[in-house]
């Protein structure tokens, strides 16, 4: 099967499964609608796709990773709902649609995010395809990647950096945690489920670190030269919110060079794993050249 077709199949399966997890919940319709609204708003599904692509590299079936992939997308989606709130970025649009709080109100948006975050761990705990020991490891690593030592910590550092001149080292801390830790978890979870050796896991973790930074640099570049219609939100919001970015610190050309350097390092590490990394290489290309 061609790479593009396989990724489309994965994406379709992820989206169908996300809906299947929410619809049967014994919960008020309002919260289910708010959860589904943001889960079904589209998006690249990069994180769950990276997890399934890593499983594919170890020649393992998609079925053993689909629950963890969906849980990961739930946590990413909760972070976007909260990120868009008036108290945070105060965005009106996400992926070309009104943000969750614009449709359901601020209180329900907060609760929808809370619900997705907590339900994600239940999804992994209830997975019938994974042994208890592996589930505990996956839950522990996901909590760390999403929590104060990961995404939440990066978000706090990002908020504290607004309106200030920060160093490249501080900016990389923000992005390694705010964006990179969940991307890194995608790869690590796929490798753990795939039966990676410790050496392979070490190489893939380093690969994911470079990939996460490259992802964010591309985001910063698109905030300057992207097309609003493709991105689905207002261009120039980083400048408007007085945020430090790679182009602001390195110039636009410098940021593009840094992006290329990180992707070169990522691909070099991937080659050293000696796995069938064709899907992962293809996703690397997508991340480096994406226009939304």
From TrEMBL:
GO biological process: terpenoid biosynthetic process
One function term, GO molecular function aspect: metal ion binding
PROSITE patterns: POLYPRENYL_SYNTHASE_1, POLYPRENYL_SYNTHASE_2
The organism's place on the tree of life at top rank: Bacteria
Pfam families assigned: polyprenyl_synt (PF00348)
Reaction(s) catalysed by this chain's protein: isopentenyl diphosphate + (2E)-geranyl diphosphate = (2E,6E)-farnesyl diphosphate + diphosphate
Cofactor(s) this protein requires: Mg(2+)
Gene Ontology, cellular component aspect: cytoplasm
EC code: 2.5.1.10
Keywords on record: Isoprene biosynthesis, Magnesium, Metal-binding, Transferase
InterPro entries found in the cross-reference section: Isoprenoid_synthase_dom_sf, Polyprenyl_synt, Polyprenyl_synt_CS, Prenyl_diphosphate_synthase
Keyword Transcription regulation: no
Family the entry assigns: Belongs to the FPP/GGPP synthase family.
Name the UniProt record assigns to this protein: Farnesyl diphosphate synthase
């Amino acid at each position: 099967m061609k790479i593009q077709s396989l990724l489309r199949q994965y994406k379709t399966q992820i989206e169908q499964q996300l809906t299947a997890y929410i619809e049967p919940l014994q919960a008020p319709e309002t919260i289910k609608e708010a959860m589904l609204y943001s889960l079904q708003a589209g998006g690249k599904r990069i994180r769950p796709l990276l997890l399934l692509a890593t499983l594919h590299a170890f020649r393992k079936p998609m079925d053993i990773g689909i629950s963890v992939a969906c849980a990961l997308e739930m946590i990413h989606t909760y972070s976007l709902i909260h990120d868009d709130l008036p108290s945070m970025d105060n965005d009106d649009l996400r992926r070309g649609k009104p943000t969750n709080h614009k449709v359901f109100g601020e209180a329900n948006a907060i609760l929808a995010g809370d619900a997705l975050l907590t339900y994600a761990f239940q999804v992994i705990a209830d997975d019938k395809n994974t042994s208890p020991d592996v589930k505990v490891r996956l839950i522990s690593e996901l909590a760390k990647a999403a929590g104060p030592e990961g995404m939440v910590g990066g978000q706090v550092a990002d908020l504290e950096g607004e309106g200030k001149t920060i160093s490249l080292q501080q900016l990389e801390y923000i992005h390694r945690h705010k964006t990179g830790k969940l991307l890194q978890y995608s790869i690590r979870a796929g490798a753990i489920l795939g039966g990676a050796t410790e050496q392979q896991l070490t190489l893939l973790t380093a690969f994911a670190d470079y990939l996460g930074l490259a992802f964010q640099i591309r985001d910063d570049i698109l905030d300057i030269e992207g097309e609003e219609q493709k991105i689905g939100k207002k261009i120039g919001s980083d400048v408007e919110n007085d945020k430090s970015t790679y182009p602001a610190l390195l110039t636009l050309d410098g940021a593009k060079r840094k992006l290329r350097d990180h992707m070169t390092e990522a691909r070099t590490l991937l080659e050293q794993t000696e796995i069938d990394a064709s899907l992962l290489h293809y996703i690397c290309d997508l991340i480096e050249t994406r226009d939304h």
